[in-house]
Write a structure and sequence with these properties.
The complex is a heterodimer of chains A (268) and B (415).
Chain A (H helix, E strand, L loop, with lengths): L1 H17 L27 H13 L22 H9 L2 E3 L17 E3 L13 H8 L16 H10 L7 H4 L11 E2 L7 E2 L20 H16 L3 H30 L5
Antiparallel strand pairs in A: 1-2, 3-4
Chain B lengths: L8 H9 L2 H7 L5 E3 L8 H20 L9 H10 L4 H28 L8 H23 L4 H12 L8 H9 L6 H32 L15 E3 H26 L29 H9 L10 H14 L4 H4 L13 H19 L7 H26 L9 H11 L1
Antiparallel strand pairs in B: 1-2
Helix pairs in contact in B: 3-5, 3-9, 3-10, 4-5, 5-6, 5-10, 6-7, 6-9, 11-12, 11-14, 11-15, 14-15
The chains are: A mainly alpha (268), B mainly alpha (415).
The complex binds protoporphyrin IX containing FE.
Protoporphyrin IX containing FE binds next to helix 3, helix 5, helix 6 and helix 9 of chain B.
């Protein structure tokens, strides 16, 4: 009875994840990729996060904000306090008004100050409207992207690698499919057509740590960085988890032994 | 039962004025419990444990949570990132809700299998159904608080259901919303009620336990305790067994918290709520799915006067309220399915039917799922309204053991 119940509950809950896939439209399995942060003992690879950060700041940051991450958080990637200060100071934060209460300075521009480590990453556009105006669609904030999509990092990786020049047969013959020359075809994106131009290519940024600069590697690295942005607590969570589990295992075993002992003379 | 003579003068002094020590004694070492309870009887104490975990984590979450549509999502993310161990509190609260329902659902099916709802435990059982309803209300409103896409749209779909009631429907919905759509006033009242209901739950759990202590536990044989040999004191036997159960439960629970914290969740709820953008699939939390399936199964008008939407809402509420009538629908004198060779199988079919309804609840509202939901929902009601009463009349039960101790002694001789 117990086994049956566990099996039933497991089958039932596992189904929740699989069930959402668009019925009727062709979506291939996610592309194969693995990361050091997966699994029971998983941890972030700091070097990989730094490579990913480099891609974010040189490529993605042109369009995508990362509003929930502060410059000071970069210390988790091994940047020193001074380096973080420098990184932050490269960005300007717009002020609501200047010294004398004026809205604009003598050149007719907004007052600004350099960002400091306590500031959140400065977004590329002043607001959503400006971002849509330039990009044709809103480039979503990437702070939670790996948690906000089914498949998590595997989806984001597949999405980045899923742009295609030719529309595959399976999709072409689908009922209701219409070619769209103005947008980019991405086999993993719901609805296929997407306003983001393909970003991943070999040697898109320079790596200094000797890691091969292939498109796949770049995509893996940026996704690792985005996963860190979404779940900065992961390392702490999993290492604390191991300690707690170990403790509970011993405690529960002792409680079981005690139970056996107390019940030893009771027929039940 | 007489109170023990307290030796310690301080304890004696207090107890004569406020008999807490006597109370504790009566509900532990002085409380007789069947000697043959299986591990299925652990789930009651686990449910209380889960409620305590929810209240503790919840109280600390509130210290950093902001119930305002412009700040709720950000405040939850701040809890996740900047509050010390905030991620632990939130993931425990989030997964704790799922654990609470897993435990309570097992607890309920245990009661169904062993006939624990039958006399003299009718009130105990009805209070249990009240607890389940309160839990559902609490969890539903809690899910709205982080103000993600699924919070907003789940709340919109569910509150809209009340508009199905004739005449008063629209007023109820406006009252729930505090306006004309799910918005800041809705979030505020849901937050207030989400904080309040767990304490109402505590009170009802208190009544539930009070009733339990009056009628005592049922047991796997479904034969009442008749003589001293049938029982053992709750403490130390069941205190240690319950503690062991809590250890196992904590490991199961914390596995999700530390390694799969978003397993039971919807990715869409990590997108801030946006009233202008409806998500492609709106699904409730997994623990509501069987009821959601019953709700959506009614796609036709009932008896010309009840439109489909109202029919669905009534069916959904009926599926829960019906459970309260169980003690009177089941006419069999035999409690435990151990001695009900035919009904036992119907129990398992009902269990499978509920799991199947849960599966259907997360499928899109299209064929063949609609017809499947209709059949599964019809079976659910048929089980309680037709099969159960009928079984009481026609089933021939296996002979019951004379007493708990007789059965236990026989079992240990055979072994
Ligand atoms: C019966 C017990 C309870 C249940 C079943 C329950 C359920 C839930 C659920 C499902 C959520 C949404 C979690 C998420 O997706 O983020 C939630 C959020 C929340 N709950 Fe509760 N809760 C309970 C008790 C409490 C209590 C007693 C408090 C406070 C005293 C509380 C405070 C909160 C707060 C502040 C949130 C929003 C933060 C968040 O979303 O994590 N809860 N609750």
């Amino acid at each position: 009875m117990r086994k049956l119940l566990i099996a039933a509950v497991a089958a039932f809950t596992l189904n929740l994840g699989a069930a959402q896939a668009n019925s009727g439209t062709y979506v291939p399995e996610f592309k194969d990729a693995s990361w050091s942060f997966e699994g029971f003992f998983g941890r972030y690879d700091q070097k990989q996060l730094r490579r990913g950060y480099k891609i974010y700041s040189q490529v993605c940051a042109a369009c995508h904000s990362l509003n929930r991450v502060a410059y000071r958080n970069l210390s988790a990637l091994g940047f020193t306090e001074d380096e973080i200060k420098e990184i932050a100071a490269e960005k300007e934060i717009r002020l609501p008004y200047g010294d004398a209460g004026a809205l604009l300075n003598d050149d007719g521009e907004f007052f600004t100050r350099p960002a400091i480590p306590a500031d959140k990453f400065v977004p590329p556009f002043a607001n959503d409207a400006a971002a849509i105006d330039v990009n044709g669609a809103l480039p979503p904030d990437l702070s939670l992207i790996t948690k906000a999509r089914k498949g998590g990092p595997h989806y984001v990786y597949s999405f980045l690698m899923g742009f295609m020049d030719e529309v595959p047969e399976e999709v072409m013959h689908q009922k209701g499919f219409v070619l769209n020359e103005d947008k980019n075809f991405n086999i993993y994106f719901p609805g296929y057509y997407n306003s983001m131009p393909p970003q991943i290519m070999d040697e898109m940024v320079e790596y200094e740590d000797g890691t091969p600069m292939t498109g796949e590697q770049h995509a893996k690295d940026i996704v690792a960085f985005l996963n860190w942005a979404a779940e900065p607590e992961l390392d702490h969570r999993k290492s604390l988890g191991l300690k707690v589990m170990l403790f509970l295992l011993v405690l529960t075993a002792m409680l079981y032994a005690l139970k056996r002992k107390i019940w030893a003379n009771v027929k039940h | 039962m007489s109170s023990p003579e307290w030796k310690n003068p301080a304890i004696k002094w207090v107890d004569e004025r406020l008999p807490v020590f006597s109370l504790m004694h009566h509900s532990t070492a002085g409380y007789p419990t069947p000697r043959n309870l299986s591990y299925w009887w652990n789930f009651g104490s686990l449910a209380l444990f889960a409620l305590i975990i929810m209240v503790l984590t919840g109280v600390f979450l509130v210290m950093n949570y902001t119930p305002h549509v412009d700040m709720a999502f950000d405040s939850v993310e701040r809890i996740m990132r900047d509050v010390n161990y905030g991620w632990l509190l939130r993931y425990m609260h989030m997964n704790g809700a799922s654990m609470f329902f897993i435990v309570v659902y097992i607890h309920i099916f245990r009661g169904l299998y062993y006939g624990s709802y039958k006399g003299p435990r009718e009130i105990l059982w009805i209070l249990g159904v009240v607890i389940m309803l309160l839990m559902m209300g609490t969890a539903f409103m809690g899910y709205v608080l982080p103000w993600g896409q699924m919070s907003l749209w789940g709340a919109t779909v569910i509150t809209n259901l009340f508009s199905a009631f004739p005449v008063v429907g629209d007023y109820i919905v406006t009252l729930l919303w505090g306006g004309f759509s799910v918005d800041n006033p809705t979030l505020n009242r849901f937050f207030s009620l989400h904080y309040l209901l767990p304490f109402v739950l505590f009170a009802v759990v208190g009544l539930h336990l009070w009733a339990l202590h009056a009628v005592k536990s049922n047991n796997p044989l479904g034969v009442e305790m008749k003589q001293p040999e049938d029982s053992i004191p709750f403490h130390p036997y069941y205190t240690i067994k319950d503690l062991f159960g809590m250890g196992v439960f904590l490991m199961f629970f914390l596995y999700f918290v530390f390694w799969q914290p978003n397993f039971f969740g919807e990715p869409d709820n990590y997108i801030p709520a946006n009233p202008m953008l409806t998500p492609p699939h709106i699904v409730p939390e997994w623990y509501f799915l069987p009821f959601y399936a019953i709700l959506r199964a009614v796609t036709f008008d009932f008896l010309w006067i009840i439109p489909a939407k109202l029919g669905g809402v009534l069916a959904m509420f009926a599926s829960i309220i019906l459970l309260m009538a169980l003690p009177w629908l089941d006419r069999s004198k035999v409690k435990s399915c151990k001695f009900r060779p035919v009904y036992k199988w119907f129990f398992w079919i009902l269990f499978a039917d509920c799991v199947f309804l849960g599966y259907l609840g997360q499928k899109p509202a299209e064929q063949p799922y609609v017809i499947m939901s209709q059949l599964a929902a019809a079976y659910y009601f048929a089980h309680f309204l037709i099969i159960l009463p009928l079984m009481g009349k026609i089933e021939k039960a296996v002979e019951l053991p004379e007493s708990i101790s007789a059965a236990v002694l026989k079992k240990s001789e055979d072994a």
